[in-house]
Amino acid sequence: MKRMNILMLSSLLAVSASAQKISTQSEIVDCGQVVFRKPVTAEFLMKNEGSKPLIIHQVYKSCGCTEVVYPKNSVAPGDSFLVKAVYDAKQMGTFHKQICLYSNASEEPFILSMRGRVVSNVVDFAGPYNELLGELKSDVQEVEFDDVNRGDRPVQRIHIFNPTEEMMEPVVMHLPNYLQATVSPSRVAPHRSAEITFVLDSKKLRDFGLNQTSVYLGERPGDKIAPEKEIVVSAVLLPSFDKLTAEQKEQAPKVELSTTDLNLGSFNGKKKRKGEILVTNRGKSVLDIRSMQMFTMGLQVQLKKSKIQPGETVKMKVTAVAADLKKSRAKHPRILMITNDPENAKVVIRINVK
Fold it and tell me: How would DSSP label each residue in 154-168?
């Protein structure tokens, strides 16, 4: 019985210790561009997720250039609280400051970060902002990572603008594991701009060819996903031919298309428009069309065979469907062909239809 009581007490202590927890909407606040010698404040909205009062008993800063304001009294279970960090901005260039909160929630500190760039004058992207993503505007609605090789970490950026009278905290939602996105600054004042940086981890892409996903731009943390907030992100992962010898390259297939710019004319009330492209193998070995993918919905493709012998020509039939193209937010209908031709592993066919 004594042993059982000790075990029960140990379990209760473990539960009690693990139950004490701090949470925050974001552990990093990006301040964007900050004017030299004009102090900037980063605010961290936090919450005591534990079952007993939270006491912050010590705060460490990465340098004396940062002041921190935090609750000196205990925070009741379930209550929210605010931590403010003020950076003096007395040094030009990029800054990244950390604040360590020591409390009764854990023996390890809870680390908050503020970052940004001190400049002599703030320069916003002038536009144009032609795309509407919910209540925010953007210069583009599609992000493309073209010609990606396995192991690359390419970066793409888009600009957004807050046309409202409210402070916004934009957040990119529904990100796949191979994509990261950061918004700078984290909070966008009325009639000011921000930049979203997308970083692609190509090692986590599963398939060669087109990898496409939709992410969504929320106005603030906790916002809901909606079609009007969609950003289409495409990445084209190329097969590698690095291990081919000069002799193998000499014997390689060679793809040739009658056109890579197919004009289907105008729908003029019709539901579909059709066209053809001739695909010829001008090389010395079998041409393998490894994949045929569409950048947008509304296109249908038929290829009689995917393995084409040297000197052989095959017809590729392309159909554009008016109703489906109208639904797509992407504005440029295209077809992606991935082949085993070392010189043309990727072939993009533009479809022009009105």
Answer: -EEEEEEE--SSS-B
Residue 20's pLDDT is: 58
Burial class (CB in 10 A: 0-12, 13-18, 19+), 305: exposed
Q: Give the tokens for residue 261.
A: 């710019």
Task: Specify if 3 maps to a domain.
Answer: no
pLDDT tens by residue, 280-328: 999 999 999 999 999 888 999 999 899 999 999 999 999 999 999 988 8
Domain stop point among 95, 119, 143: 119
Say if 2 falls within a structural domain.
Answer: no
Boundary-marking domain end, from 63, 93, 119: 119
- What tens digit of pLDDT does each residue of 95-124 get? 999 999 999 999 899 999 999 999 999 888
pTM: 0.78
Can you tell me the distance from the alpha carbon of 88 to that of 66, in angstroms, rounded to the nearest whole number? 6
Cα angle value 92/184/34 (rounded, 5°): 30
8 falls within a domain: no
Q: Which helix (H) or strand (E) holds 214?
A: strand 209-218
14-to-10, 23, 78, 220 alpha-carbon distances in Å: 6, 19, 20, 36
What pLDDT, in 10s, does the model give residues 190-206? 999 999 999 999 999 98
What values do phi and psi take at 254, rounded to 5?
-145, 115
Q: To the nearest 10°, the Cα dihedral for 350, 290, 344, 320? A: -10
> What residues make up the domain containing 325?
246-353
The span from the CA of 339 to the CA of 354, in Å, is: 29
Task: Give the number of domains in the chain.
Answer: 3
Specify the CATH number for the domain of residue 185. 2.60.40.10
How far apart, in whole angstroms, are the C-alpha atoms of residue 299 and residue 324?
8
pLDDT at 53 over 60: yes
Dist CA 195 CA 215 (whole Å) = 16
